[in-house]
Automatic annotation (TrEMBL):
Record domain N-acetyltransferase: where: 1-130
Tree of life domain: Bacteria
Organism for this UniProt entry: Belnapia mucosa
Protein known as: GNAT family N-acetyltransferase
SUPFAM superfamilies membership: Acyl-CoA N-acyltransferases (Nat) (SSF55729)
Coiled-coil blocks: none
Record InterPro entries: Acyl_CoA_acyltransferase, GNAT_dom
């Protein structure tokens, strides 16, 4: 998984990654790993949460990675399909995936897998200087 993250420009050593995975085990969500042969081919991390404007929780995909050599083989599509099923099982009413405005390949993938645009998103750090 560290290799998948590194290909996306997100460096994490094995110990740090293991700690993050342990923290995810206690959160409301799911971690899905695709394996074709050998090391993981794809990774999807999803969380669900309640809001005031929806009767059922919303599931949000926070990480979707497919290895560079494994792309265009349907792995991402299968991960999203499995995520949708897990979200339905958890009682969620919708599934979100945030794609940066300059990530055209990801935006095309989102449209091809049934996602529709839902407006911009803003984020801010909760730590000074971060």
């Amino acid at each position: 998984m560290a290799t998948l993250l590194a290909e996306a420009g997100q460096i994490a050593d094995g110990r740090e990654l293991a700690e993050r995975l342990m923290a995810l085990r206690t959160a409301a969500g799911a971690v899905l790993i695709a394996v074709r042969w050998g090391p993981p081919s794809g990774l999807l991390v999803m969380h669900w949460y309640f809001t005031l404007h929806a009767a059922r929780p919303t599931a949000q995909i926070t990480t979707l990675l497919v290895g560079v050599e494994e792309r265009r083989l349907g792995i991402g599509r299968l991960l999203v399909k499995a995520a949708a099923q897990a979200a339905r099982t958890a009682g969620c009413g919708s599934l979100e995936l945030t794609a940066a405005s300059d990530a055209m390949d990801l935006q095309e993938f989102c449209r091809a897998t049934g996602f529709v645009g839902a407006g911009p998103r803003f984020a801010r750090s909760l730590r000074k200087g971060a």
